[in-house]
Amino acid sequence: MMSGKKIITSIIAGLSVLGLGLVVNPPAASAGKPDCNGRLCAYGEINWVGLLSPASATRGVIFNFSGLANDKTSSWSNETAVDGEYYSGANRGGSRFCANYRTANGWVGSGANDIFSSFYLFSNTTTCS
Question: What is an example of a Pfam family matching this protein (predicted)?
Answer without folding.
Answer: Inhibitor_I36
